[in-house]
Amino acid sequence: MAAEPTEPKSRYLHYLEAVTGPLEDKKRFRQYKARVKRLPGHYRIAAEALERYLMHFGPADGSGAMQMYEDLAELLERSAADGTPIRDVFGQDPVEFVEAFMANYPLGQYRRRERRRFTDAIARAAGEEPASSRSDDL
């Protein structure tokens, strides 16, 4: 059903991808899920919890999100192979870890920029100097 990279997509595939998103991203997501399924139990639980968090608060973009999920799988595969404890991977504050993890991806940077804009707007509304104009960083 999928067209070869060198041949043009059929009208049906164009319509299908317009409705469901790129088929390549769906294939990549299935591959990611298979990788997570092969992780040892506690790494798999951590991956599924992080994935659930990312589904709510992470990027909505298919290809950007897929790169993040693939990197997550690689991180946990390496950690499992090295025997790295979960707390050594995620630290004591998993939310801090995931926020820093997301910031490494383009849409994560977008979220950071929008947070700064929001914080600055509230500071201006309160008659304060915005944080972005001060030397300290958010």
Structural account:
- The longest helix is centred in the middle third of the chain and has 21 residues, at 62-82.
- The chain has helices at residues 11-20, 23-37, 41-57, 62-82, 86-90, 94-102, 106-125.
- It is 70% helix and 0% strand.
- It is built from seven helices and no strands.
- The chain has 138 residues and is mostly helical.
- The chain has one domain: Orthogonal Bundle (c-terminal domain of poly(a) binding protein), CATH 1.10.1900.
- The chain is flat.
- The model has no long low-confidence stretch (mean pLDDT 81).
- The relative contact order is 0.09.
- Helix 2 runs parallel beside helix 4.
Short note summarizing the structure:
The chain has helices at 11-20, 23-37, 41-57, 62-82, 86-90, 94-102, 106-125. It is an all-alpha fold and 138 residues long.
Given helix and strand content, the structural type is: mainly alpha
Q: Topology as H/E string?
A: HHHHHHH
What summary fits the major beta sheet?
Answer: none
> What is the total tally of β strands?
0
Span from first to last CA? Answer: 48 Å
Q: Can you tell me the CATH class?
A: Mainly Alpha
Protein name: DNA-binding ferritin-like protein (Dps family)
Organism: Nonomuraea monospora
Pfam family, one: DUF1048
